[in-house]
Write a structure and sequence with these properties.
Layout lengths: L2 E5 L7 H16 L9 E5 L10 E5 L3 H13 L4 E6 L12 H7 L4 E5 L10 H11 L2 E4 L2 H10 L7 E3 L12 H7 L6 E6 L8 H14 L3 E6 L4 H7 L2 H13 L5 E4 L5 H10 L2 E4 L10 H8 L4 E3 L3 H6 L13 H13 L1 H15 L4 H15 L6 H4 L1
Parallel strand pairs: 1-2, 1-4, 2-3, 4-5, 5-6, 6-7, 8-9, 8-11, 9-10, 11-12
Helix pairs in contact: 1-15, 2-3, 3-4, 6-10, 7-9, 7-13, 11-14
């Protein structure tokens, strides 16, 4: 079976590109598949940089290109199309340029929904409704997503499948060796990584961390990742600078390390592997997926998070790891307890590592490929069978 991905793809630097690349690699590692059997229709906003003969271009802002691409796929030997959907990666308002592509397409489509809203509003509700209608199967990475989708649109729960977000395998290198490599030897490391923006909630977490430092004098907080491109375009580095100023006012400037660059996969895995506690203090409680939290849990790292939708699902057996947004006292108490109690932290890491075993990319890739194989040769869409 030939499976075509429609997605952003490296060298584009975004979460969907990274996800698709790893899912594809996971399939090739777990199954006897070649790159030619897993081609990619790569959405690109600006200059096109080809990365292989099996990577095909799709100009993001060219509406005619979506129709030409659909015709090319229809004429090809592709059996199933995997649409990796996020509103911002396709052209038009709310990414609606992908709709004519789906309407023209004659191949079965399995759509992975990276964003699902509990209560969507136009134009996102309309675009998502069309995507649901024109797909053969839907995949979500959060069990709540099945409830949300089936409540909002005329689709049977049987047409929506849950597959976990993938994660890399843990490193064998000792954490202390990695800490020495990153300049934090002998420290208790708290970590947040990802594209920096006010939506990360770090400004509300820093006061809690300042409380912890008083009781855990060897604690250090690493904030890893460059500023989100859209945030940087709108306001430059104002948010990063505000975090630096806040750390100075709180008297913890020497305990807060900001790594201001895009980190590649090996670096991310190293940072997560050396972290004593990973935190996602996000304010947006409707967030349905989080690749960063998936990686942390997948690698078995002790984690604290606000109770946004993805965290509630992934950590459903660990309610003590969910902390209310902005509750400085609760965050300080939970984090301090974890950092002070090495035995409890190691026991938690072992339990989370067991959860992460089912999230390895080869295992997730094999499950996704099996699901795609189920719909190969089928003509109907959700609109026709509900």
């Amino acid at each position: 079976m030939k499976l075509l991905f429609v997605s952003t793809f490296p060298p584009t630097k975004c979460g969907i590109a990274t996800y698709t690349s790893h899912l594809r690699e996971g399939m090739m590692r777990s199954l006897p598949l070649s790159p030619a059997e897993l081609p990619v229709l790569s959405v690109f906003p600006d200059a096109w940089t080809p990365s292989g003969p099996e990577i095909w271009p799709l100009p993001k802002h060219d509406p005619d290109a979506y129709l030409r691409a659909a015709d090319a796929v229809n004429a090809s030997d592709v059996d199933v199309v995997s649409l990796q959907h996020e509103f911002g990666i396709f052209g038009g308002e709310a990414g609606r340029m992908i709709i004519p592509f789906l309407e023209r397409l004659k191949k079965p489509v399995i759509t992975t929904l990276h964003t699902v809203f509990d209560r969507p509003t136009p134009p996102y509700s309309d675009v998502l409704g069309d995507i649901v209608r024109l797909s053969t199967r839907l995949v979500v990475m959060n069990r709540l997503g099945i409830e949300w989708i089936t409540r909002q649109y005329p689709v049977s729960p049987r047409a929506v499948r849950y597959l976990p977000h993938g994660a890399p395998a843990p490193l064998e290198a000792p954490a202390e060796a990695l800490k020495a490599k990153w300049g934090v030897a002998g420290r208790k490391v708290v970590l947040t990584f990802g594209l920096l923006s006010p939506g990360k909630g770090i400004d509300r977490f820093l006061p809690a961390f300042a409380r912890v430092v008083a009781d855990v004098p060897d604690a250090v907080y690493i904030i890893a990742g460059q500023t989100h491109p859209e945030v940087k375009k709108a306001e430059g580095e104002a948010y990063r600078e505000s975090l630096v100023a806040l750390a100075e006012r709180l008297g913890i400037a020497e305990r807060v390390l900001l790594i201001d660059r895009f980190l590649d996969e090996p670096e991310l895995v190293e940072l997560l592997s050396l972290a004593d506690v990973y935190v996602t203090p996000y304010p947006g409680l409707g967030q349905i997926t989080s690749g960063t939290l998936a990686y942390a849990v997948g690698l078995g790292r002790p984690t604290l998070s606000t109770p946004y939708a993805y965290a509630r699902d992934l950590l459903r057996d660990f309610p003590d790891l969910l902390v209310p947004y902005g509750d400085e006292v609760a965050w300080a108490e939970r984090l301090g307890r974890l950092l002070r109690d090495d035995a409890a932290r190691e026991a938690l890491a072992a339990r989370l590592k067991a959860v992460g075993a089912g999230m390895r990319w080869p295992r997730v890739g094999a499950r996704f490929y099996a699901l795609a194989s189920e719909i190969a040769g089928r003509k109907e869409r959700i609109a026709s069978h509900g």
